[in-house]
Design goal:
Elements (H helix, E strand, L loop, with lengths): L4 E7 L8 E7 L8 E9 L2 H7 L11 E2 L3 E9 L7
Antiparallel strand pairs: 1-2, 1-4, 3-5
């Protein structure tokens, strides 16, 4: 990849929509069983709003990068465990 950083929608404190900030963060290296995707389109859903507001039933460590609904191009693949 030509860049070693990327933009990410993150929250550092739970709160209203204004709590979401765009941070410059290092590009992650995919680990075992993971892929790195260059995001071309992303969506925000009700789950993202609940998390941002601090209403998730699951613990959410801060700072937190939001978003999981996306479409894009696979940039890198982590190692793959092969079972025989």
């Amino acid at each position: 990849m030509p860049n070693d950083s990327m933009r990410a929608a993150r929250i550092h404190a739970f709160g209203p929509p204004e709590a979401v900030v765009i941070d410059q963060v290092p590009v992650p290296t995919p680990g075992e069983g993971e892929v790195l995707i260059r995001v071309l389109a992303a969506g925000a859903g009700p789950w993202d709003a609940w998390i941002r507001a601090g209403k998730s039933v699951l613990p959410q460590p801060l700072p937190l990068t939001l978003g999981s609904d996306l479409s894009g191009v696979v940039e890198a693949v982590g190692t793959v465990q092969v079972y025989t």
